């Protein structure tokens, strides 16, 4: 008798179910030992955290400019979609770093997009995906990523620490993403200085900048807050800055503009 799959009640749960299946398939095609070997023999990383700190020290917003084709909440965002040209435009605008979506089923992403973007500029690049297994971390470094995202809502503490330890052993930065006070408390148990506050609830896809207003002031001074999601205007930038975040990750708003370079520059110089 066939057993029906469990009903998954929220978007994040459905994404993670797909992600675990993807990892099973990809790791079957390339053993962990092989992808780890490739990662440990990849070229040097670019300093992701240092790039953000330098931008802030110079009086600019530390912008992590995102490259993604689509999203569950926004549908298709940009067509034609040219990762290399977007990377060059963001670099010209003064972005500190890039974030590139690599998830295929939900964001129409691809690791090739990250490779193209990183090869077109000198900016450090975050692989933005739902990281749940060591195999993905090694794959990210093997393909050139300088940083990875760890979403606390998607991980146990044990998983988060294991993935961070692997990333640090590969000289990669880690952006730990939180959406509520409990996740923030857990993230502060990690070594990373980068704490992303996602204004979007990944279970419901509702976005509210009040999440940043609440959580960013709770982040200790030795960490670096990064505001994420729902940031569209210079006033939004100033609002998050008042809360305590001088670094921001912005994607959909920029990608929907005809001139992404001008749009990015407008946020970077909003302070």
UniProtKB/TrEMBL annotation:
Protein name as catalogued: Indole-3-glycerol phosphate synthase
Similarity field: Belongs to the TrpC family.
EC number: 4.1.1.48
Pathway(s) served: Amino-acid biosynthesis; L-tryptophan biosynthesis; L-tryptophan from chorismate: step 4/5
Positions of the Indole-3-glycerol phosphate synthase domain: 12-266
Catalytic activity: 1-(2-carboxyphenylamino)-1-deoxy-D-ribulose 5-phosphate + H(+) = (1S,2R)-1-C-(indol-3-yl)glycerol 3-phosphate + CO2 + H2O
GO molecular function, a single term: indole-3-glycerol-phosphate synthase activity
Origin: domain of life: Bacteria
């Amino acid at each position: 008798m066939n057993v029906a799959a469990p009903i998954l009640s929220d978007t994040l749960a459905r994404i993670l179910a797909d992600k675990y299946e993807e990892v099973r398939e990809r790791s079957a095609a390339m053993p962990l030992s092989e992808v780890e070997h490739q990662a440990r023999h990849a070229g040097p990383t670019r300093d992701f955290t240092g790039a953000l700190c330098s931008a802030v020290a110079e009086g600019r917003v530390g912008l992590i400019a995102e490259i993604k084709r689509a999203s569950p909440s926004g549908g298709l965002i940009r067509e034609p979609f040219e990762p290399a040209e977007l990377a060059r435009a963001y670099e010209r605008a003064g972005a500190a770093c890039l974030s590139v979506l690599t998830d295929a089923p939900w964001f129409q992403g691809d690791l090739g997009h990250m490779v193209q973007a990183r090869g077109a500029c000198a900016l450090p690049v975050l692989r933005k995906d739902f990281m749940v297994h060591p195999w993905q971390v090694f794959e990210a470094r093997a393909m050139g990523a300088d940083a990875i995202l760890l979403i606390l809502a998607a991980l146990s503490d044990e998983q988060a620490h294991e993935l961070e330890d692997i990333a640090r052993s590969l000289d990669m930065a880690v952006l730990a993403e939180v959406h509520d006070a409990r996740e923030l408390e857990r993230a502060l148990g990690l070594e990373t200085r980068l704490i992303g506050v996602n204004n979007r609830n990944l279970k419901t896809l509702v976005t509210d900048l009040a999440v940043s207003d609440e959580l960013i002031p709770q982040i200790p001074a030795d960490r670096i807050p990064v505001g994420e999601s729902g940031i569209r205007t210079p006033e939004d930038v100033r609002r998050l800055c008042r809360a305590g975040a001088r670094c921001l990750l912005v994607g959909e708003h920029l990608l929907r503009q005809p001139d992404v370079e001008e749009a990015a520059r407008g946020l970077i110089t909003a302070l």
